[in-house]
Write a structure and sequence with these properties.
By secondary structure, this protein is of the alpha+beta class. It is built from 3 helices and 4 strands. Strand 2 and strand 3 form a beta hairpin. The longest helix is centred in the N-terminal third of the chain and has 17 residues.
Length: 99
Amino acid sequence: MLVERSDLLVKEGMEEEFAATMRERGNPLLATFPGVRSVSIGRGVENPDKFMLLVEWESMDAHDAFRNHPNYGPFREILAPYVKGGAMEHFTMVTDRRL
């Protein structure tokens, strides 16, 4: 399993609209991609203009295929008006006690 963590910096004054847009359109669209197991988003407490998007993927291959999916462009268009920057990292997760 792969977890993608994206830290999204949202333009000042657009935080509430971004949160609503992600709840109503972004997360549901992202959840339709093949290989997505779960999608969640959270808002920073100390930095309310910072959001963390967590996507659980079946594999890195599923994540890589995401960029070629027909809904990739529409998903990026949802983010574009709000996001001014950020960072992304990927983590291979272990679900049992063996590392």
